[in-house]
From TrEMBL:
It is found in: Membrane. It holds the Pfam family HisKA. It catalyses: ATP + protein L-histidine = ADP + protein N-phospho-L-histidine. Keywords: Kinase, Membrane, Phosphoprotein, Transferase, Transmembrane, Transmembrane helix, Two-component regulatory system. Residues 212-424 form the Histidine kinase domain. It comes from the Bacteria. This is histidine kinase.
Length: 424
């Protein structure tokens, strides 16, 4: 249980760090992506405005609004006249007869006039005012507008170079994020063992105390039981003796279950093997047959034969007995108890369902039903008996088998479901 809590804590901490990294690094990468897109739009606007030419004197607009303190100080930065030389672009004009004339190709590398004309015709064929075209290993954004003399002008800007900063930051963010998660997880694994050591020691001491106290309690309980039987033999049988016998039986069950839970906590592990689930359920239901009949319950049993699961035989038998005993105690008068063992839909798991009529359970909170000593109201405890550790023990054992146990209320029935992996 402690180790499970430890790994759950580590998993939660790593998930929390992952969320923080996604928000911070993701936000940084997202802002860079938006800034790159805005920069492409600004430079294209500047190129159109200056008819395909950029210089330190006419390119102020390419770096955004310098009157905006946020853009000037954090996003675009202050205007630097030298920044215009980082952009790769070219511009052309197209006359009425669709003849392409190169206006400016001084700022591109290995893109001759023939290729420029071909790229222009490809852009014009899209019939869009703006878009992008591939030129070798680069992608050029383009925009179509009218120049000062009314001619159609197309400006092209290499956006691959602008977006390179975004992709670099994206790769760095991914590597740093994964690296941070790995380092954080390793450190947490190394440190968490030492951090929870006092809790582990305290937990083991509690288990040892329960085991020792349980063994010590067995002696006075045995004496009380023997004295009660002697009173009966002497002819002093009465309702008080019967009540004492019932309470001794309940106390004996409580002690045995407490010791079983403590031993399971001390060892930490249960040796799992292939167990005939069908046989265990069949034997347990037969043992409870007379008890169910005595309480005037309708007792229905449906067992699929040949189901073997991964578990520990005696512990699994205890789980079945706990659920059957719980159904016996909490079934409504003249109600129905049903036990069903079957395969799951994909035939990978064995599913045990133990249900009983329990009309009062419609409005109960089932989220704490497997908590130790849990009772939603005192009348539930006083009328039906029980000490509230049976279901908690059943859950711990089922989880030790790497299975699942749940409870629900359907119609007038409360249903306990155990799912265990079928052994191959």
């Amino acid at each position: 249980m402690i180790q499970k809590f430890r790994w759950k804590f580590i998993g939660t901490s790593v998930a929390a760090l992952l969320l923080v990294l996604l928000i911070t690094l993701g936000g940084l990468v997202g802002i860079t992506r938006v800034q790159s897109k805005n920069e492409v739009d600004r430079v294209l606007t500047a190129l159109v405005k200056n008819e395909g030419h950029l210089s330190p004197r006419n390119a102020h607009a390419a770096l955004g609004n310098q009157n905006d303190p946020i853009n000037r100080n954090f996003l675009g930065g202050p205007y630097n006249p030298e920044a215009v030389y980082q952009y790769r672009y070219f511009a052309v004009t197209v006359d009425a007869s669709h003849r392409v004339t190169v206006v400016n190709d001084n700022n591109v590398y290995q893109v001759n006039s023939t290729k420029i004309k071909s790229i222009t015709r490809k852009a014009l064929s899209d019939h869009q005012d703006s878009g992008s075209v591939d030129v070798g290993r680069n992608q050029y954004a383009y925009r179509i507008a009218k120049n000062s003399v009314g001619q159609t002008m197309v400006v092209f800007l290499n956006e691959t170079l602008i977006y390179n900063r975004f992709w670099l930051l994206f790769r760095v963010a991914v590597v740093l994020g994964i690296g941070s998660l790995i380092v954080f997880a390793v450190v947490l694994i190394l440190v968490s063992g030492r951090a929870i050591k006092p809790i582990v020691d305290n937990y083991h001491k509690q288990q040892e105390f329960i085991t020792n106290a349980g063994h010590e309690l067995k002696t006075p309980v045995a004496v009380i039981s023997a004295n009660t039987e002697m009173e009966e033999m002497l002819g002093n049988n009465s309702e008080w003796n019967e009540s004492t016998k019932e309470q001794v039986e309940k106390l004996t069950k409580l002690i045995n279950r407490l010791i079983s839970m403590a031993r399971a906590g001390e060892t930490g592990e249960i040796t799992l093997s292939k167990v005939d689930f069908s046989k265990l359920v069949e034997d347990a239901t037969q043992d409870f047959k007379s008890v169910m009949k005595q309480n005037h319950y309708v007792y229905q049993v449906s067992i699929r034969q040949g189901l073997n699961v991964v578990a520990e035989k005696h512990s699994l038998n205890e789980v079945i007995n706990i659920l059957l005993d719980n159904a016996r105690k909490y079934c409504d008068p003249n109600g129905k108890v049903r036990v069903e063992l079957s395969k799951s839909a994909l035939s990978k798991n064995a599913v045990l369902r133990v249900s009983n009529t329990y009309k009062e359970g419609k409005n109960e909170d089932y989220s704490h039903f497997f908590d130790r000593f849990y009772r939603e109201d005192e009348s539930h405890n006083s009328n039906k008996g029980g000490f509230g550790i049976g279901l908690s023990m059943a859950r711990e054992l089922v989880e030790a088998f790497h299975g699942r146990i749940s409870v629900s209320h359907k119609g007038d029935d409360i249903v306990f479901t155990v799912v265990l992996k079928i052994a191959k």
